[in-house]
Amino acid sequence: MLNNIGLPGLLLIAVVVLVLFGRGKISSMMGEVGKGITAFRKGMDDGRREIEDQSAAAARDVTPPAATPGTPSAPAQDPDRV
Q1: CA–CA distance from 82 to each of 44, 74, 76 (Å)?
Q2: Buried b vs exposed e over 32-64: b needs ≥16 C-beta within 10 Å?
Q3: Each residue of 3-36: pLDDT tens digit?
Q4: What is the CA radius of gyration of the chain?
Q5: Are 37 and 45 in contact (CB under 8 A)?
Q6: Vertex 56, ends 55 and 59: CA angle to 5°?
Q7: Model's pTM, two decimal places?
């Protein structure tokens, strides 16, 4: 159905909306739409940043610290002697 509207139909709809709501109401509605889009993008960026922070925390180096002098260390195991 939408494919059959064409440019003249869209212009007629735009004129009817303009007459019904007035220029001031339409501009305020578009301002609200813009604020909504901005808030959505900010939320998406915050979510992406949070996911990246979590994956960075999981990918941290987890190697154990080197043994300090005077503390016994576990003997190295030979993988062939299991």
Answers
A1: 50, 16, 12
A2: eeeeeeeeeeeeeeeeeeeeeeeeeeeeeeeee
A3: 677 888 989 998 998 899 888 888 898 899 999 9
A4: 32
A5: no
A6: 85
A7: 0.49
